[in-house]
Amino acid sequence: MNRICLVEDEHKVSAFIKAGLEENEYLVNVATDGARGIELIENNNYDLLILDVMLPLISGIEVCKKVRATNPQVPILMLTALGAVDDKVAGLKAGADDYLVKPFHFNELLARIEALLRRQTAVRSETEVLKFADLELDTDSKTALRAGKTITLTAKEYALLELFLRNQGKILSRQYIAERVWGIGFDTGTNTIDVYISFLRNKVEKGFDGKLIHTAIGMGYIMK
């Protein structure tokens, strides 16, 4: 059974989510403030984290940053208030893999959790190293190197990089990227994909020689 840590201070919301997830055979621990959330996360091995942005003591954004400092791979889903664009962007910059706007339907939450876990738990039968120029991605250990330097990636950044490395020289549309990386219906009218591409470019290109991921205006992105 997958273990989930839910950090949410609204009792009705946390009770609703916990009950629904447990009905779907997830093990759920709940924290009602950021400090307790960090304590739980540091002392347990979770398969996924759900963090509300607005939390007592320590915000969900700060919790996310702290987790990412030591655990770049665990999937993190942020819960944000309706229309709080700044919260969404801050969450993604802090290292969140996805976000869900309140109020939401439980089935959408479940679908997003399942999509994140599918990506995280996909097991390959043998080690495979994908290469392009001086960039390498080990799909077994989920580690990336460029010019011999280790690059720390979040789960979503890893998924994006793997997608580009498996499609070198091909233009990938935003719709294709959304379907392959998010795994569910995704509103490509938002700038979420562009934000993630920017994060990935910053990590694999900044400080290195040569661009790898290029924009195909009006069409998408290409690794060349």
Question: What report would you give on this structure?
Answer:
It is a single chain. The chain is of the alpha/beta class and 224 residues long. It is 42% helix and 22% strand. The chain has helices at 11-23, 34-43, 60-70, 85-94, 106-121, 155-165, 174-182, 192-205, and strands at residues 3-7, 27-31, 48-52, 76-80, 98-101, 129-132, 135-138, 143-146, 149-151, 171-172, 213-216, 220-223. Strands 2-1-3-4-5 form a five-stranded parallel beta sheet, sandwiched between helices. A four-stranded antiparallel beta sheet has the order 6-7-8-9, with helices on one face. The chain has a three-stranded antiparallel beta sheet with strand order 10-12-11. Helix 6 (155-165) packs across helix 8 (192-205). It is globular and about 50 Å long.
Write a compact overview of the structure shown.
The chain has 224 residues and is an alpha/beta fold. It has eight helices and twelve strands.
| Main beta sheet | 5 strands, parallel
The best one-word shape is globular
Average predicted confidence as pLDDT: 88
User: How many helical stretches?
Assistant: 8
Relative helix content: 40-55%
The strand line-up of the biggest sheet is 2-1-3-4-5
- Helix-strand category: alpha/beta
Radius of gyration: 17 Å
